[in-house]
Amino acid sequence: MSEIAVQIRGLWVSYNALAVLEEIDLEIQAGKYVGILGPNGAGKSTLLKVILGLIKPSRGEVLVFGEAPQRLRHRGQIVGYLPQRPLGNPHFPVTVLDVVLMGRYGRIGLVKRPSLKDRQMALTILEQVGIAHLAERAIGEVSGGEQQRVFIARALCVEPRLLVLDEPMVSLDACAQDELYELVHGIKEKLDLTVLMVSHDIGGVARHVDDIVCINRRIHIHQAPPIGRLGLESTFGCSVEYLFHGEIPHRVVKVHDD
Questions:
Q1: In a domain, 151, yes or no
Q2: 3-state secondary structure at position 230
């Protein structure tokens, strides 16, 4: 029987008595590459933060590899995370290597300095994501696609079993997006990771992931790609049109009445 990486039962999350997530039941098998889709305000990032132990549910149960996520978070283990805004000040005077080493503090503690072994691990991971040559460059001097590789490397420095990526493709051009999808897939295979990726890129996600979760307050779809029209309409809350290239829709747009 396959190990369950994430198990959610009867999850509700409310802010000021307003339900953001409701009746969420979800199981994600270990080793899966899962894309999470939904419109703005659908609760995608909230779901990730619940899994990370950053938000406490109003009710329901969440387990990550059989443990409560808050326990894992306090131990700095299991989960690597790339948030939507991973660097508050892009001009902060730190090198690429410094940023990646930040991922080690969950393991070694904030009061300890990274050891030579930690530095070597960070350099090895930078090599795995293809940017070892940028180790001494300032983080603000590298491109958007290179920065996302840096932040993925930082998340990998945790030595995770679960990698959580919240819209890593934002602001990247099509070529950089495809390269990043392939990079994440390769890392997943090499390190035997489970990956959760929030995205608005329906076509890109469908080409690269094992499973798709469509969410809009509730789970509307959880299946392998492709997704049919009805599933997307129930998620996005409107009639939609597909713009196809091959068998995978690249965009979904609202149907307008004449």
A1: yes
A2: helix
Note whether residue 68 is domain-resident: yes
Give the pLDDT score at 146.
93
Q: Is residue 251 part of a domain?
A: no
Separation between Cα atoms, residue 77 and residue 172, nearest integer Å: 29
> What distance in Å separates the CA atoms of residue 56 and residue 1, rounded to the nearest whole number?
29
pLDDT, tens only, 235-252:
776 555 544 434 444 444
Domain that holds residue 109: 4-230
**Which is nearest to 215 in space by CA: 148, 227, 164, 185?**
227
For every residue of 151-171, DSSP letters joined together read HHHHHHTT--SEEEEESTTTT
- Report CA dihedral (238, 7, 5, 213) to the nearest 10 degrees: -10
Task: Give domain status of residue 258, yes or no.
Answer: no
**CATH number of the structural domain spanning residue 125:** 3.40.50.300
210: phi then psi, degrees, rounded to nearest 5: -85, -40
Torsions phi, psi of 87, nearest 5?
-135, 110
- pTM across the whole model: 0.87
Write down the mean pLDDT value for the chain: 86
Q: What is the per-residue pLDDT across 170-220, written as a single tens digit (0 to 9) for each?
A: 878 888 888 999 999 999 999 999 999 998 777 778 888 999 999 999 998
How many structural domains comprise the chain?
1
